[in-house]
Amino acid sequence: MKAFLILADGHVFEGRSIGAVKETISEIVFNTSMTGYLEILTDPSYAGEAVVMTYPLIGNYGVCCEDMEDELPWPDGFIVRELCREPSNFRSETALEQFLKAHDIPGIEGIDTRALTKILRTQGTMNGMITTNENFDLEEVLPKIKAFKAHDVVGRVTCKETGFVPADVPKDWDGPRLKVALMDFGAKKNIAGELSRRGCDVTIYPAYTSAEEILQSAPDGIMLSNGPGDPKDCGPIIAEVKKMFDSDIPMFGICLGHQLLALANGADTRKMKWGHRGANHPVKDLETGRVYISTQNHGYVVADRTVPDDVAEVSFRNANDATTEGLHYLGKDVFTVQFHPEACGGPQDTAFLFDRFINMMEVCKNAEEE
Ligand SMILES: NC(=O)CC[C@H](N)C(=O)O
């Protein structure tokens, strides 16, 4: 069946429908990862967006359910050059096409994703519509496409009830056992995974949980997760995050969590032209000068020179465009990053940041006990 991608600037791409047959309007963003399509599809931070994969062949190792970052896929659409229908991998449980259909995600294949990405790079990400309606009227649909704005996407993806992931450590574990409160703004599964493998009992809280409730549970540390949408749309959450920050409990924030904590402390965020989405974004640790390759997925960034000097300093910068990639809060056991240390694009990457968080919590806990 024919399908069309209509961009807000009037460009129309014709391809074939994949996944669910339904019309959808969302922001069209591109991801440059060559693999990891399942992790991308199940990352809740993509809610409200349709993802264009720039790598031309997608789906060739099928759907390995173990790799899912959430129970469900979250993008509103999926756009590829060529979808592989005969995946080959011993871990694969189904083909991507079936997965998209089963979860009601519409998509389009067979379009020139390189031309599409060039448009998004020159003009910036923009809204678009995926439709199988051949008789669409451009004049009629363009205003609707332009007007689209995703609402309360964090509310859509966050857990509805408190959850618990116990420490996943051997019986003879002699490392610390710590209690972490994970704020779920759209958390990827492996955030809790990285913590639990390091001896943490992780309680996962819905995004709108009050700071009072979190503080009452007396966690050793608070983890602020990634999540979808514009961080400035999260006013009530920002207010609670500020109260958590003022409590002096160690904190670690990733992506949306990083942005929310920056906003809570007087910094500003801005929308990027086309964002960072891929598995090979170089970030420089400003303390050591070392560059790490990171996985990223964000369309907003903490605006340069808006972070009050007496509150925090920039700890990481993107080596391509020098944007802020991490903050370290002065005189506090609190740090945040814009990239994804829980995403294992390579063997270890920046997972050491979880060790840093564990050490912080341990030192703090020991100091209290003494
Ligand atoms: N992965 C994330 O947490 C993304 C944060 C935010 N929604 C952005 O696009 O910048």
From TrEMBL:
SUPFAM superfamilies: Carbamoyl phosphate synthetase, small subunit N-terminal domain, Class I glutamine amidotransferase-like. Pathway: Pyrimidine metabolism; UMP biosynthesis via de novo pathway; (S)-dihydroorotate from bicarbonate: step 1/3; Amino-acid biosynthesis; L-arginine biosynthesis; carbamoyl phosphate from bicarbonate: step 1/1. GO terms for molecular function: ATP binding; carbamoyl-phosphate synthase (glutamine-hydrolyzing) activity. Keywords: Amino-acid biosynthesis, Arginine biosynthesis, ATP-binding, Glutamine amidotransferase, Ligase, Nucleotide-binding, Pyrimidine biosynthesis. Residues 1-131 form the Carbamoyl-phosphate synthase small subunit N-terminal domain. GO terms for biological process: 'de novo' pyrimidine nucleobase biosynthetic process; 'de novo' UMP biosynthetic process; glutamine metabolic process; L-arginine biosynthetic process. The active site is at C255 (nucleophile), H340, E342. SMART domains: CPSase_sm_chain (SM01097). The keyword Ligase applies. Its EC number is 6.3.5.5. It catalyses: L-glutamine + H2O = L-glutamate + NH4(+); hydrogencarbonate + L-glutamine + 2 ATP + H2O = carbamoyl phosphate + L-glutamate + 2 ADP + phosphate + 2 H(+). The keyword Ligase applies. Pfam families: CPSase_sm_chain, GATase. L-glutamine binds at S45, G227, G229, L256, Q259, N297, G299, Y300. It is an enzyme of class 6 (ligase). Residues 1-176 are annotated as: CPSase. PANTHER family: CARBAMOYL-PHOSPHATE SYNTHASE SMALL CHAIN (PTHR43418:SF7), MULTIFUNCTIONAL TRYPTOPHAN BIOSYNTHESIS PROTEIN-RELATED (PTHR43418). Small subunit of the glutamine-dependent carbamoyl phosphate synthetase (CPSase). CPSase catalyzes the formation of carbamoyl phosphate from the ammonia moiety of glutamine, carbonate, and phosphate donated by ATP, constituting the first step of 2 biosynthetic pathways, one leading to arginine and/or urea and the other to pyrimidine nucleotides. The small subunit (glutamine amidotransferase) binds and cleaves glutamine to supply the large subunit with the substrate ammonia. Composed of two chains; the small (or glutamine) chain promotes the hydrolysis of glutamine to ammonia, which is used by the large (or ammonia) chain to synthesize carbamoyl phosphate. Tetramer of heterodimers (alpha,beta)4. Belongs to the CarA family. This is Carbamoyl phosphate synthase small chain.
